[in-house]
Structures are given as C-alpha cells and as structure tokens.
Amino acid sequence: MQENAGSVFEKGISSARASFEQVLKSPMAIREMNFEKCEYNIKNVDKSENFYAISSELIGDFIGESILVLSEQEVNLMIQKCLREEFWDSSDSANKRMQDEFLKEVDNIASSAVVTDIANALEVMLISGTPKLHKLTAAELNTHIRYQASTYDSILHFKAIFQCEDISISPNFIWMFNEQIVAKIAS
Q: Are 137 and 125 in contact (CB under 8 A)?
C-alpha cells in the first residue's frame, strides 16, 4: 500500500537524520522540518555564505535528481567533527580531495536512505547515482538549481534542522522529478 507524499518524505528525512547520526557519531534530533514545492530557488539564503551542492541522479523506474545543500560553515563543522585534524587544511590538495570525497559519501548515505524510503513506499525501483560536488556562492546556488531543474516537472524543497549535542546543521534537500513520479506519489 502506498503512503501519501508527506509521510513518504517525512520518513525519508527521518532516515536522512539517522544517516547524519551515523556519519557524525552523535545522536541527532530533528528540531524543525519545512517542506515546500519550489520555483527553482532556495528562499532566504544568506547572500554572504558559500554552499556545497551535492547532486545525485535518480535512476530506475523514474528519473529525477536530488541535491543536498550544506553551507560552508556546516561543512567545516562536519569535517572538524569527523576527520582527523591533519585533514582540516583545505589549502592542501590531498586534504581537499579527502574533504570532497567525505562530502560525497555523506550525500551518498543520506540521499540513498531517502531514495530507499521513496522507492519502498511507491513500490518502484529507484537508486541514487554517483554524487557530484559543486562549491557555489549564494547567487550561483540558485542558478545551479534552476539549471538542473529545467528538465523536470516538479521540484520539492525540504529544509531540516538536525541538532546533536555539539553542532547543528540545516541541510536543504532539493528533489526534482518528472511528472510520472509526481503522479505516482499523488496516487
């Protein structure tokens, strides 16, 4: 039996929280979660901030794309919490590669958890492809999302605040789908 769209994504965000717990090795609570159907941009973006957008193509019975967006500040907190201090200096090219691979793995774990929940709820085959990492300014972020979304029919935006004892992160999850999966979610 299929679940409604709200419960599918709520369960998915809960799975993403569990994935962040696993990565950060700390219990996390979902302090807040917001959902909106969006028009190619993330509202209320701090214009002075840089962001990491990690995108993964959705492959299987339907096509789509997910983008996990984290602020540079959140990324630095996660790196300092999860990687040894010798890897913190991103001016070193080997450290930068390690940090980039770490972020792609975070996306791989979190996005795969959400995609699995969606696939199970809709009773379809759907997997995440290989993550691609983009470091962007606030202006570039919305341009990037607009460009990526131009081939899809529907864009959903979830923003959650995950809180553990020593850090708080507010990932943005952007999900882009074709009309076929939107109809399946709505049914």
A: no
